Structure formats: C-alpha cells, structure tokens
Amino acid sequence: METAQAITDLASSSLTNANSRVHALSDRMLQELQTLQRSTGNLPSSLSASFNSASSSLSCAITNLRGILAEPIPLNQKVARVSVEVKERVNPLLENLSGKANGILNVVRTRADDMKGKDVNRVNGHAGRQ
C-alpha cells in the first residue's frame, strides 16, 4: 500500500512540476512577445506602418496563447495546443518581423555608407566631380 501511495505521490508531483514548467515557459514567451509588440509600436511613424500588420498578428497570438493557458484542459492537450500555436503562428510571425527588420537595417546601412562616401568626397575636394 505504501508503494502505491509513493508512486501516486511521485506521479502527482511530476505532473505538478511539468505543469509549472509549461506555464513558466509560456509566461516568459508571452512577456517576450509583448515586449516585441511594444517595440513595434514605439517605432517612428515612417517605419511603424510596415509593422502594423505584424503588431496586430502579435496581439492575436498573445491572446490565443493566454486563452490556451487559461483553459482547464489536461496538460498534454495544453502543451499540444501551445506547440501548434507557436509553430503555425508565432514562428512565421517572428521570421517575418526579422526579415522586415533586416531589410530596414540594410537600407539604413546603405544610406549611411552613401552619406559617408559623399562626406569623404567633399573633404578630399571631389564634390561634384565624377
């Protein structure tokens, strides 16, 4: 009888620990997504327009993940649903945001390099000559 109780206690403890880990990791992911969403909202207006749909998608993903985590469903179902949400919505969204950010950075770097080249030409007395 003691062995059966010990096994039951261990299983219950393991489930509680797994549940706590899932919620802790999910909470951290939600915090990071919210930080990213705030960051896109704080961009200058000339840049924020290109991130509007991404910000809206982030908001939907955050809402969906919160809903899944709040549902009174078994842990394995919760993990499966969070996993699907991350694979189908969050990962593609983050890839999209990363691509947009890299594109903007490339444009800024190119313009900065162009400006440096113009400044070097002025300093060397070559302004206007080509």
Rg measurement, Å: 25 Å
Q: Give the strand content.
A: under 5%
Give the H and E element order: HHHH
Count helical runs.
Answer: 4
Report on this model:
This protein is mainly α. The protein has one domain. Helix content is 86%, strand content 0%. The chain is built from four helices and no strands. It has helices at residues 2-41, 45-48, 52-70, 75-123. The longest helix is centred in the C-terminal third of the chain and has 49 residues, at 75-123. The termini are far apart. The mean pLDDT is 80.
Write the layout of secondary structure elements.
Layout: H1 2-41, H2 45-48, H3 52-70, H4 75-123
Entry keywords:
130 residues, mainly alpha
Q: How would you summarize this macromolecular structure in one to three sentences?
A:
The chain has 4 helices and no strands. The protein is mostly helical.
